[in-house]
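Lab meeting tomorrow. Please check the following:
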Amino acid sequence: MPLDHGLLELMREDLADAPGISEKRMFGGVCFLLDGNMVCGVSGTGLMFRVGKSAHAEALAQAGVREMTFTGRAMGGFVEVAPEDAEDAPRARLVALALAHARGLPPKGAKG
């Protein structure tokens, strides 16, 4: 499934004011990183958020949010949202959870 460029632009807008954000092609889409740690991403199937294990249940409690699977396995601390469920307020809550998780991680150095 091709990358949803409309969702990509929404995520760029959502993260525009967050210092330290960069973009990287990962998981067949585009991921947003904070100081080298994944925050969220956009793929052909929708949005993914790295909320961390401590906020996983809170994220899953939101309508339209489901556990993220990759190569058939659930990824703890990651959730995903289908494009039709990517409304502004729920997406903003997931972005906040993902940013809080990434801010709690040590910055990753550049690979040499």
Q: What stands out?
A: The chain has a mean pLDDT of 92. The two ends are 32 Å apart (CA to CA). Helices lie at 5-14, 56-60, 88-103.
